[in-house]
Amino acid sequence: MSAILIAAGVIGAVGILVGIALVYIGNKFHVDVDERETAIREVLPGNNCGACGYAGCDAVAAAIVAGEASAAACPVGGAAVAEKINGIMGTNAEASARMVAFVKCNGSCDHTETRSSYTGINDCRAMALSGLNPWKCGFGCLGFGSCASVCPQNAITVKDGVALVDEEKCVGCGLCAKECPKGLIELIPYGQIRAVQCVNSDKGKDVKEVCDVGCIGCKICMKQCEAGAIAVENNIAHIDYSKCTDCGACAAKCPRKTIRKGQGQD
Prior knowledge:
The chain is of the alpha+beta class. The chain has helices at residues 2-28, 35-43, 57-65, 78-89, 124-130, 146-150, 175-179, 204-210, 220-224, 249-253, and strands at residues 99-103, 156-159, 162-165, 185-189, 194-196, 230-233, 236-239, 259-261. The strands form four sheets. A two-stranded antiparallel sheet has the order 1-4.
């Protein structure tokens, strides 16, 4: 009986000592959390999606308080959340253009043809890894909607084999762009009317053989642009949105109708 009491006493004493040690260590290494960090964390969406470039909402909240990230760091929260964070931080609202996703492909069933059938996981990355492509154009949208599956706003749908973005729903988080194995999605300014819907870098003759609306690098658009906003590189036209005046001359003269209205604006 005495042995049991001694053992219980020893265990109790050890427990007390461990408790005292934990309290001491806790006080020794305690780091005060800035109240602003907690307040910012509460106004963030809580998706923990990583679109901001940080590990999650806690991490970006800490970065904002530390001055390592801007109040507009959360693309999912958008301007509304940025305004609240500015209020918490006592800073001025940052003027930043709203960005939305744009799919640089218009090679739907009406404009290109299939060259093979695919049976497998309905996922663009899986298909890309297999090395197969159901369409004649090897640069175009695979059409399985992997981008749509990661969109937190349900702003992407697949129609006739090509992903389409609803600009009104899109918050410009960029998750779809990261998911697309073909690199077809870019972020462009909201309301940008002219955009090039092609990434096929083959020469014009080869592009014509696989798609009715692919860019052939003819440079007609570049010659029409008085603002100098268009350059043709690697056989593809590129628009500098900071220079574009939306005059429409490029789209009007494009023989392939590759320069089109931003998706969701038709």
